[in-house]
Design brief:
Largest sheet: 8 strands, mixed
Strand order of the largest sheet: 3-4-2-1-5-6-7-8
Number of helices: 12
Strand content: 15-25%
Helix content: 25-40%
Oligomer: single chain
Structural class: alpha/beta
Shape: globular
Radius of gyration: 20 Å
Number of strands: 14
C-alpha cells in the first residue's frame, strides 16, 4: 500500500508536535511493509535535512509560502495534486487546517484519512478569520474523510457532539523510552547544573503559556539560589509575542536553548529537576509524554488535553494562574528531586503503528 502524508511541515528534526508524530510513526509503517511518502514544506528544508529518504520513508518537497496565514493551505492544495500524481492508495491529512482540502482530495478520487490533532482555532495566535477557516477545516475534514483519527477522547467528544461523527478512531500520540544521557557538557555550557533547573519545551506562541512560567519563576527565583529555568524551543514565525518573550527571559536570566533535538535535548531532559507545561491549548502534548518517559516530576496546566490517567490531581495548576503555578513549583523544589515512574503502555509507538495500519487497510478497501 502507498500512503502519502500531508499537513506536516516535514521530517526529520523539524519543530512541532505533528512533525514529531510523523517522524516516529512512519518509519514504523514502512517496517510493516508499506510504501510511505511525506510531502514536506520547502521553507523547512535546510542543508541539515535536505534528503530524499528518512528510515525508508520517501520525502518529497513542495512549495509553501513562508507566511503564517497562507503557508498550510497553499501547500496542502499543491500537496493534494502531488499526491494524486504519486497514485496514493491512501492520503493521510494531518491537522484541521490542511483538512480544508479533504473535499478536493475526494473529488480527485482519493481515499482520505484525517488525523485531528486538536482544535487549533483555540490557539491565541490566530485572527478571527483564521479561526473561522480552521473551524471550517475541522468540519470539512470530519465530513469528507473516509476515516478520522483523533488523538484524545476530548477531540472524539468534540467531533461527536458538533458533527455527529461517532466512528472516529482513538489513537494516542506515542513516546519512546529514552536511553538517558551520561554526559553534562551541553547543559554546563548553558550554565546549568544537574537537578538544579526547571525545563519546559515548545514553540514560542502565546498558547504555550511560557510567559506565565517565566513570571512564576521570577516570583520565586530569589528563594532558590542556583536554580534556573530553561526553555527549549523557538518561534516558527517570529512576531511581537516571541520577541517580547525572549526579551523578558533574558532580563530574568532564563536559559533559552532554541530548537534542539538529539543529544542536546537528551542531556536537558535527563538532568532536569522538574518539567512544567503551562499551555492554554494542546492536542495530546508530546513534551509532557517525553518528560514522563524521562521519569521527571511534572507540573501541568489543568486543560483537558493534559489530564492523563497516569498523573495525579496534585500535578496540575489552574491554567493562567501565575501565583498558583509559582506555589506549585516552590512546593516541588522544597521537596527536592524525585524520579517518578509512569504507566506509558498506552503510548507505545509500535502499537500505535499497528492501529494506524488497520485504519489504512480499511480505508483502502
Amino acid at each position: 500500500m502507498h500512503i502519502v502524508v500531508i499537513g506536516t511541515r516535514g521530517i526529520p528534526e523539524i519543530q512541532g508536535g505533528v512533525e514529531t508524530h510523523c517522524q516516529e510513526l512512519y518509519p514504523r509503517i514502512v517496517e510493516l511493509g508499506h510504501n510511505v511518502t511525506i510531502i514536506r514544506r520547502k521553507p523547512y528544508v535546510t542543508d541539515s535535512n535536505r534528503i530524499t529518504e528518512y528510515k525508508g520513508v520517501g520525502l518529497t518537497d513542495v512549495y509553501a509560502p513562508k507566511q503564517k496565514s497562507l503557508e498550510a493551505i497553499v501547500h496542502t492544495f499543491l500537496a493534494v495534486i502531488k499526491a494524486r500524481r504519486l497514485k496514493a492508495d491512501v492520503l493521510h491529512i494531518h491537522a484541521i487546517g490542511p483538512a480544508l482540502m479533504a473535499p478536493f482530495a475526494r473529488m480527485l478520487g482519493m481515499k482520505v484519512v484525517m488525523t485531528n490533532h486538536g482544535p487549533d482555532y483555540d490557539r491565541q495566535k490566530w485572527s478571527y478569520p483564521a479561526k473561522a477557516m480552521l473551524k471550517l477545516g475541522e468540519r470539512l475534514g470530519t465530513r469528507f474523510s473516509n476515516n478520522v483519527i483523533v488523538i484524545s477522547r476530548v477531540i472524539a467528544d468534540i467531533l461527536s457532539t458538533r458533527y455527529g461523527r461517532t466512528d472516529t478512531r482513538l489513537i494516542f500520540n506515542g513516546v519512546s523510552r529514552p536511553t538517558k544521557s551520561v554526559r553534562t557538557d551541553y547543559i554546563k555550557s548553558l550554565g546549568l547544573e544537574p537537578k538544579k533547573y526547571i525545563v519546559a519545551v515548545g514553540r514560542f506562541v502565546k498558547e504555550k503559556g511560557f510567559h506565565d512560567l517565566i513570571e512564576a519563576f521570577a516570583q520565586i527565583h530569589d528563594s532558590y539560589p542556583g536554580y534556573h529555568l530553561a526553555i527549549a524551543g523557538d518561534a516558527d514565525h517570529p512576531d511581537q509575542y516571541s520577541t517580547e518573550l525572549k526579551e523578558r527571559a533574558h532580563k530574568l536570566d532564563v536559559v533559552l536553548t532554541g530548537f534542539i533535538r538529539g543529544e542536546k535535548m537528551n542531556q536537558l531532559m535527563t538532568n532536569a529537576a522538574l518539567f512544567v507545561i503551562p499551555s492554554y491549548h494542546e492536542g495530546l502534548p508530546f513534551s509532557l509524554l517525553e518528560a514522563m518517559s524521562y521519569n521527571l516530576d511534572v507540573i501541568a496546566s489543568d486543560i483537558p488535553a493534559n489530564k492523563l490517567e497516569c498523573l495525579a490531581p496534585d500535578d496540575y495548576f489552574k491554567t493562567g494562574d501565575v501565583k498558583h503555578l509559582a506555589d506549585k513549583v516552590s512546593t516541588r523544589l522544597d521537596r527536592g528531586y524525585r524520579s517518578r515512574t509512569y504507566d506509558l503502555s498506552a503510548y507505545d509507538w509500535n502499537h500505535i503503528a499497528r492501529q494506524t495500519e488497520n485504519v489504512y487497510t480499511q480505508t483502502a478497501k
